[in-house]
Structure formats: structure tokens, C-alpha cells
Amino acid sequence: MDSIDNDYILSHISPEPDHLYRLYRRTHLNHLYPRMCSGHLQGRMLAMIVSMIKPHRVLELGTFTGYSALCLAETLPEGGEIHTVEIDDEMEDELTELFSTSPGGDRVKLHIGDALQLIPAINEEWDLVYIDANKRDYIAYIDLLLPRMRPGSFIIADNTLWDGKVFDTATHRDPQTLGLDAFNTYVASHPRLASVILPLRDGLTLIRVE
């Protein structure tokens, strides 16, 4: 198979909920870098993972316009809660309004600030963490998170293939590419982590804490 037909895939998976479709459209109309929004395929994947592992405490690093947080909330078990961290304080009002009016938004608790500071400050143990924040800090996030994660919990890391740039770090020397390449190596060799990289969109790494 030489190429992937995304239209075929999207027409043969569970449909995108209407409120998420509208949010995806608004993101593309009103925000810079709309490609950062997870979208239909990755959103259904996140909702599926939550339905499979049934986490009660979920942490998201990097909220952007809230699409992925609502996907994670969609299949959360009874009593489950999501804490989502966004560094851009200009997004606070928009996200607060979104979560107050969207299905599942009442299960989402928004934190504004730097994830490196907020991870130690939030007094929770995590069943699932979704990392989609500063690519240069992925290793630091892991080191801060592991003391708060039990064996059998999961981490999902986004953008781990980074448009294929991690395949050629001799050419691509920007801090994001080098950070993600170092992260991929770190996770693959970490004694407490088992991982697999899925070539979904920009690379999605599933990690199990041992």
C-alpha cells in the first residue's frame, strides 16, 4: 500500500459528533495553526482509547481550542474527570465558555499556565495522560508524571513523527524535531515504559507505565 486515502477512512469510521464538527470548523476559521486541532480521525481514536481503558483521572497537556479534551471526556466513565492545561492565557475565556456549553464539558477542569509548573501542583494520580504541548519538554513531562502514575496507567504523546522530520535529524536541527527525536529514544529505552508509535496523522505514541 503506497498511500493512505483519508477520505475513505473518514467515511468508514464512527461519525464526528456535530458539536465537534462545529468546533473544528471554528478553529480553522478563527485561529492560527488550525492543524493543531486533533480532528475527526484522531478524535475518534482518543474517545476509543478512553472507552477501552476506562480512566477516572485524565490529564491533558495542551488544550488549544478544546477539541481533544471534549473527545477524551466523551467516553469517560461515571465519576471521571479531565484536567487540561493550556499555556495561552488568551484562550481562557473561550475555553471556559466552550466547556460550560458542550457535551462532556462539565467533566473538564481547565488550568491556565506552564505544564512544567502545573504538573507538580495538581494533586492527583493519573490513569491516562495525553501530551500535546511544548515538543521540547516532552521528556521533562514524562519525568514529572511518572511519580504520579501507577503501573498499568497510560500516556499518549502526539506529534511524535513531526511531519517525518524525526527520520532525518541531520537535516532538521530545529529544537522541536530534536526534542521529539530524543523523546522517542528516551521512551523506547525507559525501563518503566512500554510503547508503540502509530503513524496516525503526525505520529501518536501509546505508552504503558509498567
Automatic annotation (TrEMBL):
GO terms for biological process, alphabetical: methylation
Gene Ontology MF, one: S-adenosylmethionine-dependent methyltransferase activity
This protein's record includes keyword S-adenosyl-L-methionine: yes
Key words, A-Z: Methyltransferase, S-adenosyl-L-methionine, Transferase
Tree of life domain: Bacteria
Cited InterPro entries: Cation-dep_OMT (IPR050362), SAM-dependent_MTases_sf (IPR029063), SAM_O-MeTrfase (IPR002935)
Keyword Protein biosynthesis among record annotations: no
Record's protein name: O-methyltransferase
Natural source organism: Duncaniella freteri
